[in-house]
Amino acid sequence: MKKICTTELLGTRQMKKLKNVRREEVVTFLSKILEIGKKNEVANLSAEILTLANNSSCRMIMSARCSGEDNQAEKCRGLVIESFDLAGKLALFNVIGPLKRIGMWYLRKRIADVTKRYDELFENVLVEHEEKAMREGPNMENKDLMDILLEVYHDKNAEIRITRKQMKNFFLDLFTGGTNTTSDAILWILAELVNHPAAFKKLRDEIDSVVGTERLVDEADIPNLPYFQACVKEAMRLHPAVPLFDRVCRENCRLAGYDIPKGITMIISTYSIMRDPKIWDSPNDFIPERFLTEKYNAKEQNLQVYVPFGGGRRMCPGINMTSSVINCSVTAVVQCFDWKVVGGDGPDGSKVNMAPKSGVVKSLAKPFMAIPLLHRNLFSAKNPV
Ligand code: HEM
């Protein structure tokens, strides 16, 4: 599954094909922000970005057609939010050891309900895709992620054999793994940029010099925007959307002087690794420039110190998808709008409150409310995107 995932479903080729889906979602997002800005109203940026990320991911994973009349994308979003809530509650019970079973019992109705809803949703979409494959035959054009996977499922000679249940579980993984993470990342990148006006200006100057002022930035421009890439990397270093992940030791080993028995679950803290003062100069400061120096690039390649997406064989397969959504949304938002934060905690009330609630908590302490001030209108009827 991982192989199909990285080579086919979420690979660069597939992501290129889905460019229009992302573009549509970004334009919808920008138009909404533009409307809010024109009325000089306050945008709940956290909510808008969550919608953008969820809709793009859902549409890219389950195909654009699904977000039509029966509003599949919206249903998925609701489900993802509910599962995150449940997962959080279950994790809490799990930490307290013996309470794990009580947690499962206490939440059993909600767990059963969510599982049933996911199952129905995926079954409907699978059947839709199967009917389409029957109609259009093997040379069907514009295959989406599910079409590719269904081909493997129905191919008796395929190198990899998968069951229907595995396929549904797989899509569940993609939903839960790929939606809130992307929106968290976008929020943090914007929050850091808004709190660092010099970096914001430098980034806008870079975009202006590469893209000009007549058109909206395009995904194809990203390789020519090194400072933008550095800003993204730096914000994800400081605020990894997945601050902890785990590994089970397959054999007895010794790590940093500690004996680790086989079967033990080790928790890896990406948050601590990426703020380790032994590795990073001024580890808690937002300094995108560090990623433009030879020193850090060499260090990153030699050691596993930059790990927002994990590492090794179980590394996140969604990097391409998430980067493409981040790239087109953040650049456009910087290119087109200035931001005035409402209720921030800076001396002039203009900063985003970035104090974590406690410990390794990743979410912004409160919703990111801001007034979008139109800097440049690049998506009017005269200048269609
Ligand atoms: C900012 C966005 C994202 C971040 C920070 C992130 C981070 C991570 C991390 C840290 C892991 C664990 C890696 C490890 O164990 O070494 C992971 C696993 C995973 N991620 Fe992501 N992820 C993001 C977006 C996505 C997206 C968009 C998708 C798919 C659409 C996705 C799908 C997955 C899957 C399926 C796994 C499990 C891989 C495995 O067990 O082999 N992620 N992600």
UniProtKB/TrEMBL annotation:
Keyword Transmembrane on entry: yes
Keyword presence, Metal-binding: yes
InterPro entries the record matches: Cyt_P450, Cyt_P450_CS, Cyt_P450_E_grp-I, Cyt_P450_sf
Cofactor requirements of the protein: heme
Protein family according to the UniProt entry: Belongs to the cytochrome P450 family.
Membrane topology: Single-pass membrane protein
Annotated compartments: Membrane
Keyword annotations of the record: Heme, Iron, Membrane, Metal-binding, Monooxygenase, Oxidoreductase, Transmembrane, Transmembrane helix
Protein name (Swiss-Prot/TrEMBL): Cytochrome P450
Organism (species): Salix suchowensis
A Pfam cross-reference name: p450
